[in-house]
From TrEMBL, chains A, B:
<dbReference type="Pfam" id="PF00072">
    <property type="entry name" value="Response_reg"/>
</dbReference>
<keyword id="KW-0238">DNA-binding</keyword>
<dbReference type="InterPro" id="IPR001789">
    <property type="entry name" value="Sig_transdc_resp-reg_receiver"/>
</dbReference>
<dbReference type="GO" id="GO:0003677">
    <property type="term" value="F:DNA binding"/>
</dbReference>
<dbReference type="InterPro" id="IPR016032">
    <property type="entry name" value="Sig_transdc_resp-reg_C-effctor"/>
</dbReference>
<keyword id="KW-0597">Phosphoprotein</keyword>
<dbReference type="GO" id="GO:0000160">
    <property type="term" value="P:phosphorelay signal transduction system"/>
</dbReference>
<feature type="modified residue" description="4-aspartylphosphate">
    <location>
        <position position="54"/>
    </location>
</feature>
<dbReference type="GO" id="GO:0006355">
    <property type="term" value="P:regulation of DNA-templated transcription"/>
</dbReference>
<dbReference type="InterPro" id="IPR000792">
    <property type="entry name" value="Tscrpt_reg_LuxR_C"/>
</dbReference>
<feature type="domain" description="HTH luxR-type">
    <location>
        <begin position="150"/>
        <end position="215"/>
    </location>
</feature>
<dbReference type="InterPro" id="IPR058245">
    <property type="entry name" value="NreC/VraR/RcsB-like_REC"/>
</dbReference>
<dbReference type="InterPro" id="IPR039420">
    <property type="entry name" value="WalR-like"/>
</dbReference>
<dbReference type="InterPro" id="IPR011006">
    <property type="entry name" value="CheY-like_superfamily"/>
</dbReference>
<feature type="domain" description="Response regulatory">
    <location>
        <begin position="3"/>
        <end position="119"/>
    </location>
</feature>
<protein>
    <submittedName>
        <fullName>LuxR family transcriptional regulator</fullName>
    </submittedName>
</protein>
<dbReference type="Pfam" id="PF00196">
    <property type="entry name" value="GerE"/>
</dbReference>
Length: 215, 215
DNA sequence: CGCGCATTGTGACATTTGTCACCACTGCTT
DNA sequence: AAGCAGTGGTGACAAATGTCACAATGCGCG
């Protein structure tokens, strides 16, 4: 039987997650805690198979607690639970090598997540991948009061065109873009040609530069 | 009851995955196929809740098939199965917005994966995250006194080459650069060719992107 | 001085990129 | 039903880019 521990400052959340896990026969709850320090201390004495831990908590937050636990036990299976798909949190969770980052919405969804983690997989909430900076590292803000917004120049582009423009801005050539998007190279050329015409930019390098300047 | 379809060129794999899913009461197998074309055609007529598809296959591969299916049904829940954690495959799978990328090792592990996907999550094999090129966004805020420095990549360049690289990073084409520096266009081409060779960068757009990333 | 290096240049060539005309399909609106 | 925008595709062609071989100049250095 899988054993889990649940850490969330809201006792209701703890108990409802605990209930669904036990009621479905998925796992038994070894212990639960409501703050990070307690969680770390408990983990050292009674390590569960999977630790479910909230990010927002009084004292040290869930990610900090996860980091401390992983320092003592690098193989700890930790699932981060949270209400928001904050890119920074997600990033830190992944860097920590936690086994997942779930958006708390449907309590029942933790059941397959726990099972998947026990099967050696990593589970992410659906919106999470979109938040990952897999593409271009955003250039830092720079101008203080003034947020980047969106260059009106690119406003005329369709979603698809924007996607291709972003890949151009990663420095990919047409063949690479075609491969990435499963398109023919000819189509990529056509699309880029359209983009350049719409934005009144003369070549792909300028497009990349302009795109990076405001994304 | 969840319905799945299974696509793998090896019939043994298809049937063993099918067996474990039905035996555990997880899902019923709508159909299975052994190549990409058939899978795409079948999907259009009988869309399963979740499609499990292998990468390596005769004809169009699993990712290509997934791309075609997603073109017709952007919400298709597709799980990629494979033997290798190839970074390029993983990257492409994620770009396609498939619901997961599993390493085929333990047949039983598809069970929680399918359930997690039905719960709206994304499932990745354990080794997968490590393969992702999560190139660290130069999250500033780092050491204050210490500026970006200089990418060691550009350290080998001469002053002249650096000047030309900077103009490339402004998006100028060869004719414009030649005009700006009072050089012949041929010389500019040679210089840029040298820069690309020295820095091991494949084309001017990539050069521009890299240059901007650290200047 | 001779050597290496950076710089500028030419010409030829292969590859990549951009443009254009035209086709097919889908989903939406009129 | 017809029109339209968005998307994906082909083929041909022109222009830009990148590579290579080779040559000439100037500059600093042992």
């Amino acid at each position: 039987m899988i054993s889990v521990a649940i850490v969330d400052d809201d006792p209701i959340v703890c108990s409802s997650i605990g209930t669904i896990l036990t009621a479905t026969g998925t796992a038994q709850v070894l212990w639960s805690a409501h703050d990070g320090e307690t969680a770390v201390a408990n983990y050292r004495r009674h390590a569960p198979d999977v630790l479910l831990i909230d990010v927002q908590m009084p004292g040290i937050d869930g990610l900090e607690a996860a980091a401390r636990i992983l320092r003592g036990d690098p193989d700890a299976r930790i699932l981060i639970l949270t209400t928001f798909a904050d890119p920074d949190y997600i990033r830190r969770a992944i860097d920590l090598h936690t086994k997942g980052y779930l958006i708390k919405q449907d309590v029942a969804s933790v059941v397959p997540a726990v099972q998947a983690v026990m099967a050696g997989q990593v589970v992410l909430g659906a919106e999470v991948l979109g938040q990952l900076p897999l593409h271009v590292a955003p250039r830092e803000g720079g101008a203080p009061g003034e947020s980047v917004g969106e260059d009106p120049r690119f406003a005329v582009l369709t979603d698809r065109e924007r996607g291709i423009a972003a890949l151009v801005a990663e420095g990919l050539d047409n063949r690479e873009i075609a491969g990435r998007l499963y398109l023919s190279e000819g189509t990529v050329r056509n699309r880029i040609s359209d983009i350049l015409a719409k934005t009144n930019i003369s070549n792909r390098t300028k497009l990349a530069v302009e795109w990076l300047a405001c994304h």
